[in-house]
Amino acid sequence: MIDFHCHVDLYPKAREVHAEALRRNVFTWLVTTSPKAFQATSSVLGHHETMLISPGLHPEIAGDRFQELELLIELIDGAKAVGEVGLDGSKRHASNYLKQKQVFSTAVKRCHDLGGRALSIHSRQAVLDVLTLLREFPDHGIPILHWFTGSVSELKAAAEQGCWFSICPAAFNSAAGKALAKKLPKEKVVPESDGPFAQLNGKPVMPWDFEITVILLSKAWEMPVIDVRYQLLSNAKVLLEKIGYTAVATSLILESK
């Protein structure tokens, strides 16, 4: 099982969830919401080959944690990936949008300067601004738009710009989400949970709920479950090799046969 975007550290009983994810999953990407959260989580949970913990600064708290931007830039230097970062253009977070843009552009520029990083990106109601900033620093690395909720035209623009997409079961809770899922470029999609924030049937999605995503995409793409599973695992292999997780990528392709 695989998960390319999960807040393992924010679940109730996070240590237990972490241990279970290590037991069940071939790979889990633990995104953090702030640089200090990254430091604390890394210290408590430690390093494990199958769990990537990345430094981030979530746009929803970019205003309150703006003073951590310098620390984020320092942490990016030693990281293979960055996340969660991005922009949130919803009315609720309009007051800190300029700070969001400064945080995101600074992070993307640093990735560009370092030769590229994988980025797990939040783009709610801000897809075009996200794409614009990514274009400004073309060597930023691998952009992965998590839980994409933009328009069909924005989806097309993101795909043409080389973006990947991580999708969770909760994305299928709305008619709009189901419609977008049908149009995702199949060769650029990987699974995520976005737990514990994302919920399904009133319960948090878990890092090991990969098969739920497979079944939901099978319906959206009108493809057999076995073919969808193989597609996602093949995509994950490609992405993990790009990130530098070659050993994990090899185990994924073995699992898919």
Strand and helix layout:
Blueprint: E1 2-6, H1 14-24, E2 27-31, H2 35-45, E3 51-54, H3 69-77, E4 81-86, H4 97-113, E5 117-122, H5 127-136, E6 141-146, H6 152-160, E7 164-167, H7 175-183, E8 189-191, E9 199-200, E10 203-204, H8 210-221, H9 225-243, H10 246-256
Parallel strand pairs: 1-2, 2-3, 4-5, 5-6, 6-7, 7-8
Antiparallel strand pairs: 9-10
Helix pairs in contact: 3-4, 4-5, 8-9, 9-10
What would your notes on this structure say?
With 257 residues, the protein is α/β, with parallel strands linked by helices. The chain has a single domain (2-256), classed as Metal-dependent hydrolases (TIM Barrel). 46% of the residues lie in helices and 17% in strands. It contains 10 helices and 10 strands. The strands form 3 sheets. A 5-stranded parallel β-sheet has the order 4-5-6-7-8, with helices on both faces. A 3-stranded parallel β-sheet has the order 1-2-3, with helices on one face. Strands 9-10 form a two-stranded antiparallel ribbon. α1 links the parallel β1 and β2 (27-31). α3 (69-77) packs parallel to α4 and α9 (225-243) runs antiparallel to α10 (246-256). The two termini are 14 Å apart. The model has no long low-confidence stretch (mean pLDDT 96).
